[in-house]
Amino acid sequence: DILPLTQDTLSELLGVRRPTVTHVICKLRESGGIRSNRRGSIEIDRPRLEAATCECYQLMRRRIDRIVLTDE
To answer: Side-chain half-sphere of 3: how many Cα atoms within 13 Å?
Structure first.
């Protein structure tokens, strides 16, 4: 998965300040969960990110899937 977003755009989409996005991206880059470049692309290593999450990720994923599948 590759997201063609700048950190400015990502901060606007998430409703947070740019320094917050920069801090989180640095942490995710250090953990190997993402790779990013100066052109604004963020490459996601989904299995690594999922492995680093708590059980709440799977719980929320199931809830979102139920909502999306119910609406179809």
So the answer is: 14
Sheet of 34-36: strand order equals 2-4, 41-44, 34-36
Q: What share of the chain is helix, strand, coil (3-state, %, to 5)?
A: 65, 15, 20
2-71 — its CATH code?
1.10.10.10
Model pTM score = 0.65
Give 28-37 pLDDT, tens digit per residue: 888 888 888 7
Crossing angle (nearest 10°) for helices 7-14 and 18-31: 110
